[in-house]
Every structure is written in structure tokens, then in C-alpha cells.
Specification:
220 residues; alpha/beta; Rossmann fold; Arc Repressor Mutant, subunit A; six-stranded parallel beta sheet
């Protein structure tokens, strides 16, 4: 189902000053509109049930119900709603749990307005966005599929270019602009990359690129 031109966002964080700061951040992006706020996981679920947004910015540590549990319930009832985990610290277990719960992104609270908007746009288009810190953690623990080094040799040079940009957190639209090709062509390349490498998701592809040093960890 196509997303509307304006991305509707719910802010879920138990600190009012954080929500106000996010409102200021997002007010600079004309294609993003904050439609509601919640101060705990239960309120976030109620807001989504009442008026489903396109994207939820979800703090992971909140009273009443934490962000991971809230995400699980939201994704179960509203799979079309994307959730971005927003946190002030990075933890390997939290990253893994958040991804397992179905988040479409994992970003830090000290993120720049530009990066936050990029993560929201990526989520609204069904793409996953990981902060560099989260990607580094997961890259250290990812287990590549059997024969994956041989599979890497089957990628074309353009597919390798696309894979590197996926690993750097760029959306299909960003990649299209960077390579001067259409977003539809980028999507086709990503599909081909996943098939050739035996991977199931864009996230696995990004971690694969990091694991095999297609993109150095210090460049993301």
C-alpha cells in the first residue's frame, strides 16, 4: 500500500523535553508530520490503535510497557506501521531484541536532524535503517551463509556498488540519486543481491557487506 506524501509520525518517549526536541528536529522536514505523542508503551499502543501513523519513533526504555514489548504488540496488530527504535545508548542485546520485535530502524537520540529524517523516510518506504553504532555491533556477530565468499564473486560491479551504499544506510532513493539510476533499478539490484548471496533481508545484506569488508566499519 503506497504511503501518503506526508509521513505521519507518532513520538513515544517518557521525557517531555526529548519529545519537544524531536518536534523541533522534524519541523524542518516538510514531508514529515508529528500527529501524536505518547509517554509510555501503553499510550503508544493506544495511539496507534486510535489513528495508525506511518512511523513510530519508539524509546526503548519507558514505564508501564517498554519499547520492545510495545513494538511487538503494534506490529502484531498493525503490521503496516513501521517502528524506529530511538535510544540514548547502544547495547548488543537491545539491538538484537529490537530487530526481532520488528523495528524498521535503530537510531541514537543524539542523531542529527538529517539522519533522523533519513531513517523515517527509509522506514516509510519499507527499508531498514541502522545507526552506524548498531551496524557495527551486529556485524561482529553475524554468521554468513555457507559458500558466501564464493557467492560474492557472482555480484556485478554495479551490484557491489549498491551493496556498499546499502551498508552505509542509504535508502533506495538515496542510492538512485548517488548512482544516477532509477529507484526501481536499485530495487531490482537489491533483489538480485539477496538472491545471489542467499540472504533474506536488506539488513542481512548490509551486515554481509561489513563482514566481508566491502565497507570498513569506520566508514559507516
Amino acid at each position: 500500500m503506497p504511503k501518503p506524501s506526508t509521513i505521519r509520525v507518532l513520538l513515544a518517549d517518557d521525557h517531555q523535553v526529548v519529545r519537544q526536541g524531536l518536534m523541533i528536529f522534524l519541523s524542518t522536514s516538510p514531508d514529515i508530520a508529528v500527529i501524536a505523542e505518547a509517554q509510555n508503551g501503553l499510550e503508544a499502543i493506544a495511539c496507534v490503535n486510535h489513528d495508525p501513523p506511518d512511523v513510530v519513533l519508539m524509546d526503548l526504555v519507558m514505564p508501564e510497557l517498554d519499547g520492545i514489548q510495545a513494538t511487538q504488540q503494534i506490529k502484531a496488530a498493525h503490521p503496516e506501521v513501521e517502528v524506529i527504535a530511538l535510544t540514548s545508548y547502544i547495547d548488543e542485546a537491545k539491538v538484537a531484541d529490537a530487530l526481532a520485535a520488528g523495528v524498521a530502524g535503530y537510531v541514537m537520540k543524539d542523531v542529527s536532524p538529517m539522519e533522523l529524517a533519513r531513517a523515517i523516510r527509509a522506514a516509510a518506504h519499507g527499508e531498514l535503517y541502522l545507526s552506524p553504532q548498531a551496524a557495527r555491533l551486529l556485524a561482529r556477530r553475524v554468521q554468513p551463509p555457507p559458500h558466501s565468499e564464493n557467492a560474492l564473486a557472482t555480484l556485478t560491479e554495479r551490484e557491489r556498488e549498491v551493496l556498499r551504499l546499502v551498508a552505509r544506510g542509504l535508502s533506495n532513493q538515496d542510492i538512485a540519486q548517488d548512482l544516477n539510476i532509477s529507484a526501481k533499478t536499485v530495487k531490482a539490484h537489491v533483489t538480485s543481491i539477496l538472491q545471489k548471496l542467499g540472504l533474506a533481508s536488506r539488513t542481512q545484506a548490509a551486515l554481509y557487506a561489513l563482514r566481508f569488508n566491502l565497507v570498513p566499519l569506520d566508514e559507516i
